[in-house]
Structures are given as structure tokens and as C-alpha cells.
Amino acid sequence: MKILVTYSSKTGNTKKIAEGILEILPKDSIILPIEENIEPDEFDIILIGFWVDKGIADAKAMKYIDKIKGKKVGIFGTLGAYPDSEHGRQSIIRTKELLEPQNEVIAEFLCQGKVDPKLIEMFEKLPKDHPHGMTEERRKRHEDASSHPDEDDIKKAQEVFKKILVDN
């Protein structure tokens, strides 16, 4: 069984999760940044990591997802919001919809990750009544996200993806 772990990472969050997942996979599994654009047809299982951008996988990940047909796919992502929030749930659903029904999504994982400081700066400059304007709640969420992904997040991701080895 040939497994590819590929990821798009803006601040290093998703890369950290990808590397953690790789640790529990068979030794011949391959990990590459999504920019390497490796041919998906060579693999039995593809694990795709992304950072959430506007409620869905980022553009680089979406471009790679377009190339995948007839595969077993696992998805994992990082975002500044809480992963169990409605935004987090919808981000996974929207990303899965890009893959299905032409592929079988066999696992999914989402965790918080530190937010790009440039994005936080942009939020600070927005008017308070803007949907993304900085609020105390958003500031707290960004503060919470700044310590993620942590070891617990990596262990949770490993547990999710360890199951695919048994089931596939």
C-alpha cells in the first residue's frame, strides 16, 4: 500500500501535523509539500493537509484536490477558529465535497493552528462592525490558537490516521 502525505502550510501548522502523521505510517510512505505537485495516480491512499482559508481548503490544496480521481483520501487541516465550531465543521464538509463522490474520504482531522500575524494585523485594522473585525472573542481565539498545534493535537491526528491502516 503506497501512501502519500502532502500538505499546504502557510505558517508551519499543517506541516507539523503532516510530519506527526507520517510517524505512524509505514516506512515507505512519502511526505511532500503540495507544491511538489506529485502525480496522485502512483498512490493507493493520499492524505491531504491544508490550512482553512475562507471556510474551505486553501487554494493550493484545492488545486491539487482537482487532480485526484478514484482514490482513498484522508484530509487534515488547521485553522484559527475552534475545530468543533460551526466554521470548523463547515470547513471540513466543504473540503470533503471537493473530493466526493469521485474519491472515498476515509479519514478527517481538524485542529487549531496559530494565525498568521499579518492576518491578525489586518483584522485589527477592520472596523469593529466588520464580520472579521477584531473583537475580544476573536482576540481570545487567536491567543488560544497560538499554542497549536501541540503534542495533543498531533497524537489525536495520529489516532485518526492510524485507523486507516487497519481498515484499508
From TrEMBL:
Coiled coil: none annotated. GO terms for biological process: heme biosynthetic process. GO terms for molecular function: FMN binding; menaquinone-dependent protoporphyrinogen oxidase activity; oxidoreductase activity, acting on NAD(P)H. SUPFAM superfamilies: Flavoproteins. Residues 4-161 form the Flavodoxin-like domain. InterPro entries: Flavodoxin/NO_synth, Flavoprotein-like_sf, Protoporphyrinogen_IX_DH. Residues 126-155 are annotated as: Disordered. This is Flavodoxin family protein. It comes from Gottschalkia acidurici (strain ATCC 7906 / DSM 604 / BCRC 14475 / CIP 104303 / KCTC 5404 / NCIMB 10678 / 9a).
